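Researcher: We're reviewing a set of sequences before deciding which ones to prioritize for further study. For each one, I'd like a predicted 3D structure that I can look through quickly. This is Copper transport protein ATOX1. If possible, include the structure in token form so it fits the rest of the review sheet.
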Amino acid sequence: MESQKANATAATSSVPTKHEFSVDMTCEACANTVTHILNKLGGVQFDIDLPNKKVCITSEHSVDTLLETLGKTGKAVSYLGPK
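Model: Here's the predicted structure for Copper transport protein ATOX1, in token form for your review sheet.
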């Protein structure tokens, strides 16, 4: 029974999760930079809401990995929570 629980946990940990981030984007070039960085990471689906300065990412990557990746844009980034 223990091994079944472990297998179930392992299976659910690799399920893509949708996360919302605030990214200090002010223009289309900022959004393009975010797009480039996330495409380079791979394994993500995302929507950029430029007017509200938000990025929703569906991925198996950890929040820390996504924060680190978005931080490479040079923009202020914060995690808003699961979407």
